[in-house]
Design a protein that fits this description.
425 residues, seven-stranded mixed sheet, 7 strands, 8% strand
Length: 425
């Protein structure tokens, strides 16, 4: 018996086959809901089957059954990454023959396998371990030394039976710790491949958390009717804000909307009305805490003026700062962009990366997202790279969620990011 977790007090535990197939089914379900694309659903199903393959080794099983103590090293996600890397040819063929994921979908034959390998490696974030001198332990040397042993154990105890094919035992490994960035795609396809990697990893982690009971089974929000204009407002200005918000929420096939307008135009009203009239959650990402604080206050003022109560939270510094909703599920989340994109890189806690809030990496893909003063991201290379990858994943693969980019400083975003469609106001 190959286990996925440590034995409980009764001496039983869920098997690796049961857990992997449950995660695979949930991952495919989430992928189809988010993208409507069977190919991505099939790719996520395979990712689910593979995500814990590294647990099918004797040292991981000894840990689960209590035969050994202490944290196992190398970690199962690292072993799984190594195994996928050594079985690339078979996995490519499996994707083509059994999962209906054609090579053309991944742009080059190696991209899908690369995405699977890195999603498995990072499905618990970068699992860094240290020696007694607090020097980082490089898992690659152990993986290289014991590659054949680990691979034979995983093939015989799990992979050959699960995938109904013979995987290669005679392999060698000489890799290096991978970056959370796709490889194999070039030119304009590079950002698309990076977006697909973020999508696959995020859905895989979310499915794993849901199956393991660390996340609830989804969130639902109601769409509100168009509210009456507050007393004393300028009718023309309110009419413009309402018209733009209706255009965003009612647009079919247009995912991205760019609003370049001066201060005082009513961009905050547009963001609030868009959130109000949508059945999706709305995430508003700001470049600084100062802007986020001011926007949170302005949105609560609008709630009072309109007499609506959708629930607004303010998040930054890794936690919820304050909120107008009583429970953890606010319809509008306002915060700094580094807090939101941080949910993608804090993989071990992607299900609850923001203390006090239920917002997670999956929500950044599935919700409506407003990037406020997005032009300021151009000055931060690290944040801008994450922003482009997230925008690419949402633009190319996510079917319903809207992205709104707002700024008082006009920027030709199409020259630097994969916007692809949209409306300029």
């Amino acid at each position: 018996m190959v286990y996925a977790k440590a034995l409980n007090n009764e001496g039983t535990a869920i098997t690796l086959k049961e857990h992997s197939e449950a995660v695979a089914k949930k991952a495919r379900e989430l992928a189809l809901t988010l993208t409507g694309d069977d190919r991505i659903g099939n790719l996520l199903y395979v990712a689910g089957l593979l995500h814990d393959v590294g647990k099918a080794t004797s040292h991981m099983q000894d840990y689960f059954t209590g035969k050994s103590s202490g944290e196992p090293s190398p970690y199962h996600s690292e072993i799984g990454w190594m195994w996928i890397s050594t079985q690339a040819a078979q996995i490519k063929q499996y994707l083509k023959d059994n999962a209906a994921v054609p090579e053309a979908f991944c742009k080059t034959p190696s991209v899908c396998v690369d995405i699977l390998a890195k999603s498995v490696f990072y499905h618990h974030a970068r699992h860094v371990q240290y020696d007694d001198k607090h020097k980082e332990i490089d898992p690659v040397s152990d993986l290289t030394e014991h590659c054949s042993e680990y691979v034979q154990e995983m093939n015989s105890s799990y992979a050959n039976e699960e995938f109904h094919m013979e995987f290669d035992n005679d392999v060698q490994f000489d890799g290096k710790v991978p970056e959370l960035k796709s490889s194999g795609a070039t030119g304009s396809q590079s950002s698309v491949a990076d977006g697909l990697l973020y999508l696959v990893r995020t859905i895989l982690v979310h499915a794993d958390h849901m199956v393991s009971g660390n996340l609830s089974d989804g969130k639902s929000f109601s769409a509100y009717p168009v509210p009456n204009m507050p007393e004393g407002w300028d009718a023309k200005r309110y009419g413009t804000s309402k018209e733009i918000a209706l255009g965003i929420t009612g647009s079919s096939g247009i995912k991205n909307h760019v609003i370049n307008a001066p201060a005082g135009f009513g961009k905050t009203s547009i963001a609030y009305l868009t959130a109000l009239m949508s059945s999706n959650r709305t995430v508003i990402a700001c470049p600084t805490k100062f802007i986020a604080d001011g926007l949170y206050d302005s949105l609560n003022e609008l709630e009072n003026l309109f007499g609506t109560r959708v629930g607004i939270e303010l998040v930054y510094g890794g936690k919820r700062q304050k909120a107008s909703c009583e429970d953890s599920m606010c319809k509008i989340s306002v915060g700094t962009i580094d807090t939101f994109v941080g949910t993608f890189v804090k993989g071990k806690n992607m299900g609850n990366a923001i203390e006090g809030s239920d917002i997670c990496a999956y929500d950044i893909l599935s919700s409506n997202v407003v990037f406020d003063e997005y032009h300021e991201l151009l000055d931060n290379n690290a944040l801008f790279a994450l922003f482009v990858n997230i925008l690419s994943a949402r633009t190319v693969f996510v079917k319903d969620a809207k992205t709104v980019l707002m700024s008082a400083t006009p920027v030709n975003l199409r020259s630097v990011a994969p916007v692809r469609d949209g409306e300029n106001t």
